[in-house]
Amino acid sequence: LYIEHYPLFGNHEYQSGYEIHADITSYGGSTISTGFPKVVYRQDGGTWEEMVMTLNSGITYSASIPVSGCTGTVEYYIEAQNDNGKQEFHPMIGAPDPHSFTFDGDRVLSASNTAVCTGSSTGDIILSCYTETITDWEKRHNGGLWESIGFTGESYSETLSEIGTWEYRVE
Fold first, then answer.
1. DSSP letter assigned to residue 123
2. Nearest CA to 71 among 23, 103, 97, 39?
3. Strand bridging mode 99-104 / 11-13
4. pLDDT tens for residues 125-141?
5. More exposed terminus of the chain, fewer Cβ within 10 Å: N or C?
6. How far apart are CA 80 and CA 150, in angstroms?
7. Cis bond leading into 96, ω under 30°?
8. Are 72 and 102 spatial neighbours (Cβ–Cβ below 8 Å)?
């Protein structure tokens, strides 16, 4: 049983999840056991959680490690097991010395709706990972000039009246 994985390390821009990939080979005709491989992870020294990785094709598996908050440290390792009971970790020692990376974000806008019909609500567009005072939200239509919305809250929504591409930013 062999795990080939190029770990995430260093600092990364904030995103809601971090994709990892691994090629896992089980030798001797054994298959990978049900419920494996899995990524075991924790954020900021918290409780270890686990997630079964998805088989993409052949021997390549992937998973997206979710995070919360705007900054943090993620530790993780990959665990595989085959039907003969052979078990492997990456890194080799697993939890005592896991892979580790950090993340941080500055002024992240997120929206549940990315495609909206005319006459429908944008849904909540939420600003997170900011430390400054919000002085205004701005929007533009089809790459035009930015215009003030006159709103200073953390989340904004509106009903669109025109077809096209709408962009939003916070000042």
1. -
2. 103
3. parallel
4. 877 777 778 889 999 89
5. C
6. 53
7. no
8. yes
